[in-house]
């Protein structure tokens, strides 16, 4: 089963509309490489112009969150219906920053995954352990619980479409990346959890990224591991040259 590598930039709360436009103009044509899927997950405000700019390119645009209801009295929230209407393709769900700062639980993550599928958005579901969980030997257990919750109620064909991002929290924005061997060990385990929920063929179709201090100079090392299908990248996705180098490095 060959899985297409997928590099996704998670801009987090960075870039105005004009900064996003300037970034896109710089990466257009260059962050488009045969055999690698290139995704930019931007703040909501930059999505309409990025979707427009990305037309006719192979770069996909993603959001970083959605509400699980289609509409309603949820001040400040954005729904899957709205993202689909814009032409957004991907949505990050359950990022550790949302779990930590916005009280997102596994149950909310599951609802959001269903909302994504209902609106033809591909979820990039984040799982990963805190430092104290790693030190307590709980890494696989934590990832298993989060993975099982995220896939709850999905059909096998939906499950095969999910992108999982394994992001050890202690490696995010710290410059302390997981070794590629450790990342492979956990990601291989996550794949076995998915196989247990469905079957080997479904698990073999799911793309699983590593995230946490991925840079142009270490992306190839992760991509060399058999179960690692790409990266979810924060800081190093913000500069055009660095983003292009990440895509090139994932070939
Ligand atoms: P950094 O690449 O900045 O460590 O961030 C990782 C991340 O959280 C991507 O979602």
From TrEMBL:
Protein's recorded name: Triosephosphate isomerase
Principal EC category: isomerase
Pathway: Carbohydrate biosynthesis; gluconeogenesis; Carbohydrate degradation; glycolysis; D-glyceraldehyde 3-phosphate from glycerone phosphate: step 1/1
Residues binding substrate: 10-12, 173, 213, 234-235
Superkingdom of source: Bacteria
The organism's taxonomic lineage, starting at the top: Bacteria, Bacillati, Bacillota, Bacilli, Bacillales
Catalytic activity: D-glyceraldehyde 3-phosphate = dihydroxyacetone phosphate
Protein's gene: tpiA
Subcellular location: Cytoplasm
The EC number(s) this enzyme carries: 5.3.1.1
InterPro entries linked to this entry: Aldolase_TIM, TIM_sf, TrioseP_Isoase_bac/euk, Triosephosphate_isomerase, Triosephosphate_isomerase_AS
Biological role: Involved in the gluconeogenesis. Catalyzes stereospecifically the conversion of dihydroxyacetone phosphate (DHAP) to D-glyceraldehyde-3-phosphate (G3P).
GO molecular function: triose-phosphate isomerase activity
Gene Ontology CC: cytosol
Signal sequence range: none
Keyword DNA repair belongs to the record: no
Active site: 95 (electrophile), 167 (proton acceptor)
Quaternary context: Homodimer.
